[in-house]
Amino acid sequence: MRSARAPITAILALLGTLLSRSSVLAADYSVDFGVETDAGKDAGSLTCLFDEICDAKLESLGLIVSLIVFRSNPERASVHLRGGDLSCCYFDGAADSIAIDPRKPLSRVPFFKGARARGALFIENERVGTLYLRFDYR
User: Fold this and answer.
1) Are 53 and 25 in contact (CB under 8 A)?
2) Spatial separation of the C-alpha atoms in residues 71 and 50, rounded to whole Å
3) Least confident span in 17-21, 24-28, 77-81, 84-88
4) Among residues 8, 17, 29, 44, which one has the least CA distance to residue 135?
């Protein structure tokens, strides 16, 4: 009887370890986000994995927020924001993306529409709204 229980106990222990590990890997961090523009407001939450692009669609505003945080550098999040209008959306200095510190309690990031940055040309685009981000590492 004892020899029959040993393999079953080992299998159950292994299965428990794998299941607990997969639940940790299923969500490395979460992000609450909001966007405020003249056209309206929208908000939501994302559950993301380190080292993978995490997207959210704000259909009411026609915007997509993309984030990535690398496990090797969790104090830096790369943020992209794009819209259906090709002139939207750029960050300060007409940059396509920005890096933020996800450890801050709340990041407020203004975004703009207009022309893409080219070389050393100074471009001042029209402010469209603000992107709000709050990260939670589990």
Assistant:
1) no
2) 5
3) 17-21
4) 29
Task: Kindly state whether residue 4 falls inside one of the protein's structural domains.
Answer: no
- For residue 19, pLDDT over 50 is answered with no
Q: Taking the CB of residue 36, how many other CB atoms lie within 10 A of it?
A: 16
User: Contact 31/136 with Cβ under 8 angstroms?
Assistant: yes
Phi-psi region of 26 (alpha: psi -120 to 50; beta: other; left: phi over 0): alpha
Task: Please indicate, yes or no, if residue 10 is contained in any of the structural domains.
Answer: no
Q: What is the count of structural domains for the chain?
A: 1
pTM of the predicted model, to two decimals? Answer: 0.74
Domain encompassing residue 71: 27-137
What are the residue ranges of helices labelled H in 2-137?
A: 2-25
